[in-house]
Structures are given as structure tokens and as C-alpha cells.
């Protein structure tokens, strides 16, 4: 069935890919095809690290490093291969093990025919022998292995290899080759990271992917002075090669806790959270909490990537002074499932029957898109009725949470011993008081001393001034 559908869809997909091409005429080339090269044409990263030790240490342990070895990916792609009679084997692998694809070593999807270098994911000698592209989307890269390495500098000199400048390395279109994914059969856009950037204010302001993901600035450009390699000239900026996104789940499995820490920091700088609550509330009264979430730091939608499985949501818990829970939404149950969240900020894909699916390879439509675009603010409201005999004050705790995948999916694919970390992107706290509590202009309760002895602080200040003037005159 899948083979028949594929044949009937090739022209449509080709048209989609042509539409996705943007600004690539200067370096447009034919994409390197499956099996066109040999894995022996590529150089192991151990050779590169001899001169580029700092850049290598940035890359080691990242999701590019583990693009193929990622156990979540390996389990999911096996299911996808079974569901589609192998249709997605080359399609998914072209970004996760590009050397494996251009060398014709995958399929089979189990990697049994793959060389060691192909299992290194998106590695040094693959990235720096990209000599052009045929646009963006579904990895239309051209690779030319050999003694020439391409990069972002037009004055590089190396005693070991030739160096060539290619403008593509300084543009978002380089990243857009893999970070725009279009369904190979029906043209559904599965990952729109590149296009959501392209349509944003960031693109208008000429802020490219590399400005945020290859600098120390996390969500804005920050120069990283240094040398690209031993013996290279010192430059005002050398691109960092950790290129971290939001994945704090997989890196610790490979001992790369520092990469996970960077992912957490990036998440915490991606969005802001503001909440509004009443200063006072009476028993029996309906209380409303208003939360505003702004995508303040990401140049694309949040969440992004294969965002049908990403989960971002607001957790709200209201307790009284004795610890009694008055209201909750977005907390996790014993199995790690999200309970009563107002909204899960991701997109919901549908299959050919119109049913929601977490399997993008079975999807042909978008049922809902609840992601937050660049610079966009969304608001959600939570209401509850305050019970009798509540112990004041009330504490309202809110947390904007994120995780890479639902816990039930990981339980199914990887076993119940693997817990998906929940990252708090931002937190806000508010207090609601008894109506009898005097509240100042800042929304804070006035102390009994300040309300019973008005003007006392003024008297103290005048007394201090009088003593100071007396000492001055004596001198």
C-alpha cells in the first residue's frame, strides 16, 4: 500500500520541496543520493580533534553527536519502519545518520550493515564537507568528501586540509536542510522549525539560527572570542558547536550532564510567565487566576521539532496556610500523566481516519496547533470557588513545565524504568489574603505596628536630623 501511495505522491512532494527553497541560488546543487558514496570517503572525528579540540569538546555528547545512537529515536524509528513497510527508513536516517544514507548502509533500519563512522550521527567530517544544498527540507544536502573542508571563514589556512568559504554556513538555510521535515507521501509539514523562524521578526531582523544556537548568548548573539583550531588566528567570534536545543532527556544517558544543563538553561530563557490574582478573596467567592505566557526568547514556535510529542503546560496549585490543597491543574499522577491541564502547548496530528496520533508517519493532517509563536503571548484562566473555613493566606504556585515526550510513550518504547524529566521553564508565586487584612498599594499586608502608629517613622527621621544638626554646630 505504502509503495503505491508513494509513487502517486512523488510529484507533489517534489513541488513542496521546491516551494520550501529560499535564497539558495548562490549554492544550489544536486542533493547527494542514497548509496552515491562510501563511508570510507569520510574522516573519523578523532582526526579532527587533534587540531580542533575545543570545538570537538563542544560537540561531544550533544544531540548531533547522538543523533543516531539516541535510544528513543532507535525504538521509535523501528516502529515507524514496521508501520510503513520500510518507507521511512531512508527518510528518517538522512538526518540521523547522513553518512549511513549516502553510503547506502541503511536500510536495514536495525543498523546491522552500518559502519562505525556512520553511527556517529551528525559528525565533523560530514558537516564540513557539505558543499551546497538543493534547498531546505528533508535534507537536500550536497556532500563532497575529500581534502577540502568548507566553513564560515574566507581566510582560513590549514596545514592538514584545504579550506573553502561557503556563505551557506552563516545562514539559517544550512540548519533548515534538516530542521524542516515534510512527510514523504502526503506533504504534511512535520517539523516547521525553519519555516516558523522564516516567518518571524527574527528573520526580518536578520537574526539567524547560529546567532542563538552557536553562541554563549543562549537566546541572543554573544561573541565567543577564540581560535577555531591550533595555530589558527584569534578571532572575535568562534561558533560554539554544542548547538543545544531543549533536550535534557537523552544527554545524561551518555554521561553528558553539562549538555542537559545547557538545555535547561535554554528552556528557562525561552519563555516568560506572568500571573494575575486577586489580593483578597472571601469564602464562597469565585477566584480567577490569569496566566500570560510569552515566547520571549525562541526564534521559532515553542515547543518545536516533532512537536506532537513535546509537552509544554502550566501547572497551578493553590494551598491554604495549613497545607490544604484548594485547587490544582497540570500536576502529574502516579504514572506520570498530566492531569487537568488547561492546555498542552503542542500540535495534535491526525491520521487518515481523523483520529489523533503521536506517530507522525501515520499523520496526514493537523487537528490542533497550540504552540506559541515567536514574540507571541497566550493567556489561560483558572477559576475555583473558595471553600468555607479556609486558612489564610492562600499560596498560588505556578510553573510552566516542559518535557521531551509523554511518559506513557517512553514506558511503551523504552520500559517503565526510564523517567522523562520535567523541566520548569519559569515559576511565579502569588498570595491571596483574608478580606480583613489591610493591604498596601503594593498588594502587601500592612503590619500592625504600621497601622496603629501612623507617622512614627516620620518622628524618628526628624529626631535623627535634629541630632545631626546639633553635632555639626558643635564641630
TrEMBL record:
Transmembrane segments: 454-472
Keyword Nucleus: no
Keywords for this protein: Membrane, Transmembrane, Transmembrane helix
Domain Cytochrome c-552/4 residue range list: 48-128
Protein name, entry field: Cytochrome c554 and c-prime
Organism: Methanolobus profundi
Lineage: Archaea, Methanobacteriati, Methanobacteriota, Stenosarchaea group, Methanomicrobia
Amino acid at each position: 500500500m505504502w509503495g503505491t501511495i508513494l509513487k502517486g505522491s512523488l510529484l507533489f512532494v517534489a513541488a513542496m520541496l521546491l516551494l520550501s527553497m529560499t535564497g539558495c541560488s548562490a549554492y544550489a546543487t544536486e542533493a547527494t543520493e542514497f548509496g552515491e558514496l562510501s563511508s570510507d570517503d569520510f574522516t573519523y572525528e578523532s582526526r579532527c580533534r587533534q587540531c580542533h579540540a575545543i570545538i570537538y569538546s563542544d560537540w561531544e555528547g550533544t544531540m548531533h553527536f547522538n543523533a543516531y545512537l539516541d535510544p528513543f529515536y532507535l525504538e521509535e524509528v523501528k516502529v515507524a519502519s514496521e508501520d510503513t513497510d520500510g518507507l521511512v527508513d531512508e527518510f528518517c536516517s538522512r538526518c540521523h545518520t547522513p553518512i549511513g544514507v549516502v553510503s547506502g548502509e541503511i536500510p536495514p533500519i536495525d543498523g546491522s550493515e552500518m559502519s562505525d563512522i556512520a553511527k556517529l550521527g551528525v559528525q565533523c567530517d560530514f558537516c564540513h564537507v557539505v558543499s551546497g544544498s538543493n534547498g531546505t527540507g528533508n535534507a537536500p544536502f550536497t556532500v563532497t568528501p575529500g581534502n577540502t573542508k568548507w566553513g564560515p571563514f574566507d581566510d582560513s589556512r590549514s596545514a592538514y586540509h584545504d579550506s573553502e568559504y561557503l556563505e551557506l554556513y552563516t545562514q539559517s538555510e544550512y540548519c533548515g536542510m534538516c530542521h524542516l521535515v515534510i512527510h514523504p507521501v502526503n506533504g504534511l509539514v512535520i517539523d516547521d522549525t525553519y519555516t516558523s523562524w522564516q516567518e518571524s521578526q527574527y528573520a526580518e531582523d536578520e537574526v539567524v539560527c547560529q546567532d542563538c544556537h552557536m553562541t554563549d548568548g543562549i537566546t541572543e548573539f554573544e561573541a565567543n572570542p577564540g581560535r577555531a583550531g591550533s595555530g589558527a588566528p584569534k578571532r572575535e567570534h568562534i561558533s560554539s558547536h554544542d548547538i543545544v536545543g531543549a533536550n535534557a532527556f537523552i544527554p545524561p544517558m551518555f554521561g553528558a550532564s553539562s549538555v542537559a544543563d545547557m538545555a535547561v538553561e535554554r528552556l528557562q530563557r525561552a519563555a516568560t510567565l506572568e500571573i494575575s490574582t486577586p489580593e483578597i478573596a472571601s469564602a464562597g467567592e469565585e477566584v480567577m487566576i490569569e496566566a500570560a505566557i510569552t515566547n520571549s526568547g525562541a526564534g521559532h514556535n515553542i515547543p518545536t521539532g516533532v512537536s506532537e510529542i513535546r509537552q509544554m503546560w502550566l501547572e497551578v496549585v493553590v494551598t491554604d496556610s495549613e497545607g490544604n490543597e484548594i485547587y490544582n491543574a497540570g500536576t502529574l499522577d502516579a504514572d506520570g500523566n498530566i492531569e487537568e491541564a488547561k492546555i498542552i502547548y503542542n500540535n495534535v496530528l491526525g491520521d487518515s481516519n481523523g483520529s489523533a496520533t503521536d506517530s507522525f508517519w501515520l499523520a496526514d493532517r493537523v487537528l490542533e496547533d497550540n504552540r506559541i509563536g515567536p514574540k507571541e503571548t497566550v493567556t489561560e484562566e483558572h477559576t475555583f470557588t473558595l471553600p468555607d473555613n479556609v486558612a489564610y493566606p492562600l499560596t498560588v504556585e505556578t510553573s510552566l513545565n516542559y518535557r521531551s515526550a509523554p511518559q506513557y510513550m517512553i514506558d511503551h518504547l523504552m520500559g517503565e524504568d526510564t523517567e522523562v524529566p520535567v523541566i520548569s521553564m519559569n515559576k511565579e508565586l502569588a498570595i491571596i489574603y483574608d478580606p480583613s487584612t489591610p493591604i498596601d498599594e503594593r498588594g502587601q499586608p500592612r503590619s500592625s505596628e504600621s497601622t496603629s502608629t501612623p507617622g512614627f517613622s516620620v518622628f524618628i527621621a526628624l529626631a535623627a536630623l535634629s541630632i545631626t544638626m546639633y553635632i555639626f554646630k558643635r564641630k
